[in-house]
Amino acid sequence: MRVLITGAAGMIGRKLTTRLAKDGALRGRRIAALDLHDIVAPKTPVAAGISTTIHTGDLAAPGAADALLRTRPDIVFHLAGVVSGEAEANFDLGYRVNLDGTRALFDAIRVAAYNPRVVFTSSIAVFGAPFPPVIPDDFHATPLTSYGTQKLVGEALLADYSRRGFFDGIGIRLPTICVRPGKPNKAASGFFSGIIREPLNGVEAMLPVPRSVVHTHASPRSAVGFLIRAAEIDGATVGPRRNITMPGVGVSVAEQIEALGRVAGVKAVALIREAPDEAVWAIVKNWPTRFEARRARELGFEAETSFDAIIHAHIEDELGE
Amino acid sequence: MRVLITGAAGMIGRKLTTRLAKDGALRGRRIAALDLHDIVAPKTPVAAGISTTIHTGDLAAPGAADALLRTRPDIVFHLAGVVSGEAEANFDLGYRVNLDGTRALFDAIRVAAYNPRVVFTSSIAVFGAPFPPVIPDDFHATPLTSYGTQKLVGEALLADYSRRGFFDGIGIRLPTICVRPGKPNKAASGFFSGIIREPLNGVEAMLPVPRSVVHTHASPRSAVGFLIRAAEIDGATVGPRRNITMPGVGVSVAEQIEALGRVAGVKAVALIREAPDEAVWAIVKNWPTRFEARRARELGFEAETSFDAIIHAHIEDELGE
């Protein structure tokens, strides 16, 4: 089978590519070819027997998506998108990449008329405050960012195109991915990873919000697991509601820090400095805290069950034990 | 002030135009000019002191929406759209008119950069079965038609463009409008009006579904009232959730018929013939029954409080008493 990944150069895209190259199979079939697309060239994975083609460019450009679909990939992972902060700062770029790019890809698949599985990464950014203490699966999507709006539009198109039989789509709403590997970034959510990642490296980390903040996390490894599950699930068991809130570990920052202490000791915890930041707090206080995610669990999507497990996944996957 | 109405040649558009011409004012200001747009030329209302300009064409055509915005209307009523059945039968037309047309209009307002009030008619078609017995205001939108999908996208854009300050938008989700004047049409919902309208005219009407079917209705007069209220409401009281499910009268078909009996007597009721139609039933059985619509009521949107009142409104407005 042939697999297309858009956004293949991003953090999740790279990890998905590595996982597919390692597994060598999906839905019980051997992966013969990988098409990797991004705005910059993704790295080619080393994998015997998998023919990899690298594509670069802007999905929203005329003809670009149609060209990508020429090889009729059996599974399309649509991960491409500009992130929340960028979509908010640059209105035109966000709508072009996240809305027009997604619609162009979906329309190219529609026109190709062969009904592949499409897996779309949506986000809990489709939700907007105020929230109940635990967000149920049937809670309305009222995004408070352009990014969340663009993801919601992608979800709506995915469901309609699936209903019409143009493709067999599954949208997965990812929680915050933690622990993100690599350098600190300027995302408002960056500290959730930073307060774990930096101390594990013996480096100080800043905590800009109160320890009482509750948030839901899943590891990069779980995110890849969600994508694989979304590719493999029987569409008939999903029904017409194709966009599913993923599970995760809902914990307070204090509980994150307690888990760090259990895994890495008091010296690691001592590297966390309180550094209240009103700008970050103004954003974070409007974020959802916990999700029911009952449907996702019933459909076989699995996240970690403790924040300790999230830290262990980071150590195993990034720090080579 | 200047008022633009798209879809001005449609049933609601005509009634809104007539109401505005009669009132001569909106938001406490005199209406100096009306811009009426539709794919076919709307009728010019007779109103002293209001300068009316007729515009025809396809809102999604390049430059069309920008041209409409040149006069900087203070209030934009965006009613234009192809109906549910047409959007389902003709994929390209539905997406072009309902999604691209709406986005073109919203973008033209964004580019004009003067922050007018925009009133957008959405629909309860944004909801898709299964439903709770009463749909709360925070129930998720999972449309089961392309029309509902396109309305949902319009809602999402409206909320984001309002949040960014491009305009001050209010989306109103209309329930089924009943009693629709005029000839029977082929809409699956047509019988809800037909079983009242035809007997009042001494004509037989077919009932294709069981009398136990419960559905929510508002009169055309109420629909116009919703639009006026949406134009006049203080946006600050609405907050970021700009799309509001309108109230209505939730009744069973049996209760509709009882109301007809009270208003027009047993002779009218005797003109209703049971004519079960599996195709209509297959559609109608997935429709929502009742809505909480608490927010709308709190924000001053008023519907009839009985189906008798809906029938009286029809008699007064269409049958000249």
Automatic annotation (TrEMBL), chains A, B:
CDD domains: Gne_like_SDR_e. SUPFAM superfamilies: NAD(P)-binding Rossmann-fold domains. The keyword NADP applies. Keywords: Carbohydrate metabolism, NADP. Residues 3-202 form the NAD-dependent epimerase/dehydratase domain. GO terms for molecular function: oxidoreductase activity. InterPro entries: DenD, Epimerase_deHydtase, NAD(P)-bd_dom_sf. NCBIfam families: ErythonDh. This is NAD-dependent epimerase. It comes from Mesorhizobium hungaricum.
